[in-house]
Amino acid sequence: MASNNSNISSTSTTEIPCISCSTILDASSSRCYKCGANLRKRPYKSRAGAAVLAILLGGVGVHRFYLGQWWGIFYVLLSWTLIPAIIAFVEAWIFLSTVQRNWDFKHNENKPRGHGDEGITWLVIAAVLGLAVIIVLTIAFKKEVVPALQQHATRAAVSTAIGESRVVQVAVETYFKERGAFPKSYRDLDIDIPQVLADGTEIGIDGEASVVIIFAWPESIKGDVLLLKPKVHGADFKWECVEYSVPKQFWPDSCLAL
Length: 258
Hints:
Blueprint: H1 2-14, E1 15-17, E2 24-26, H2 47-57, H3 62-66, H4 72-77, H5 83-97, H6 100-107, H7 117-164, H8 166-179, E3 195-196, E4 202-205, E5 211-214, E6 225-233, E7 236-242
Antiparallel strand pairs: 1-2, 3-4, 4-5, 5-6, 6-7
Helix pairs in contact: 2-5, 2-7
């Protein structure tokens, strides 16, 4: 009788019924050979997959979260240092050097890899890496592309304002050619000053007949001033941009040629 109990106990620890069709299976089986039911309580954890995540994203503990280990949060908290990344690199080597049987015992309910297990793992890894790439590209876009676009928009706004100031420039040039001197005030000119553009930017002149552009847009130069100073060389009349409060990085290429 004792022998029978021993056999029953031995059988119960090495064999289990399928949760779907009740077929008797080896306890280490990951899937039922008859109905294909998944016998795992948790998703399969790939040794190579964990190592890849440790190498690429171990600095923020992704490999630990993949293994279902909550202490990956400490990697996140210390991610601003190199410590988690160094630890993760060492852990990747440990993962790869671990015997597969020992790995399955610790992380896979002592069930070896079954059909389809590895594919799901790499699908998860691909999704995680894809998300990481998107995050990196988003950060790079905000750090590099957005400022470049903003600078381009600001340069375009400055160029447009300079072009619109041509009405005032012509009035000053006409006054000088007729009288041989520059106007002392905007009242000496036959145009309405200040000229106000659609975005609120104002164009006028100062006491030295320089064209004054006060920007209302874009936000990067709102309230800043650019001066266009008249230069006479014989019969040639030129306008030179003078740095006042609009940084030169926002000047159009043609600014000094006016």
